[in-house]
Structure formats: C-alpha cells, structure tokens
Amino acid sequence: MAEQGGNSNEENGNFGINLPKNSQRTVITATSDDNLKEIFHQIRTSKNPAVINYGASWCRVCSQILPAFCQLSNKFPKLSFVYADIDECPETTQHIRYTPTFHFYRDGERVDEMFGAGEERLHDRLWLHS
C-alpha cells in the first residue's frame, strides 16, 4: 500500500486508499456516488481536460499504479486527476468492468479509455490528452 501523507485519510477526504505524500492536493478522491456525480458535473461544465482512475482497494494492480498516477498528476498540471473506488461509488461505477480503468475527458466529454496498468502507457495517454 502507498505511503500515507501527514494527515489521516479521513481528514483529507480519502477514505478507502492511502495516497502518497504530495498528492492529496493534486488528486481528487470521489468518496461517494453523490460526490462522483458532482465531479462529473464539474468536468462537464468546466470543460477542462480530466482523467478518472477507477480502482478498488482490494485490486493489487490498482495499488501498484496509484503512486505513479499521483506522481503524474504533478507532471500534467493542466489535467484534473480523479480517483474513484468502485466499492465507494457503486451506483456511478456499475459500468466499470475492469480495474484499473482510466477515462479521459476533453471539453466535458469522454474521449478515451484505457484498461489495466502500465506506467509508460498511462504517461503516453496523459501526454496525448493534456
């Protein structure tokens, strides 16, 4: 599991995962279905590019890619980075069949999808959509 930052996860709004240090401010964590719906609304209305990482606390591959996802959030500041645990947002993530799944948004619309991990693949997709 990734190293936890200085404050507890609950204080940072990160309930199911431990985000690495220096990432709590750059990765938004969806904490419930309602919260994820709000995030979708913000993505649609702001039209800023975004990536959502759908994962699960029990998923080994998700845990392995999460630190890289958080580090990449600092490398691509124009993108909004979101982590959504499928067990914490069951209604809004019921369409997710594989973890991790990454959805990429531009101008409020989903434009790409990536299944599985792979830090280099993820970096290349983020570069493409930033």
Question: Any overview of this molecule?
Answer:
The protein has four helices and five strands; from the N terminus they run H-E-H-E-H-E-E-E-H. It has a five-stranded mixed beta sheet, sandwiched between helices. The longest helix is centred in the middle third of the chain and has 16 residues. The N terminus is likely disordered. This is Thioredoxin-like 3-3. It holds the Pfam family Thioredoxin.
The amount of beta strand, in percent, is 15-25%
* Intertermini distance: 28 Å
Helical stretch tally: 4
Radius of gyration based on Cα positions: 13 Å
Overall 3D shape? globular
Strand order, largest beta sheet: 1-3-2-4-5
Unreliable spans are: 1-16
Largest sheet: number of strands, sense, barrel closure: 5 strands, mixed
**Structural class estimated from helices and strands:** alpha/beta
Estimate the mean pLDDT confidence: 86
One letter per element, helices H and strands E, the order comes to: HEHEHEEEH
| Helical fraction | 25-40%
The number of E-state strands comes to 5
SSE arrangement:
Blueprint: H1 9-12, E1 27-30, H2 33-46, E2 50-55, H3 60-75, E3 80-85, E4 101-106, E5 109-115, H4 119-129
Parallel strand pairs: 1-3, 2-3
Antiparallel strand pairs: 2-4, 4-5
Helix pairs in contact: 3-4
Q: What's the quick description here?
A:
With 130 residues, this protein is α/β, with parallel strands linked by helices. Helix content is 35%, strand content 22%.
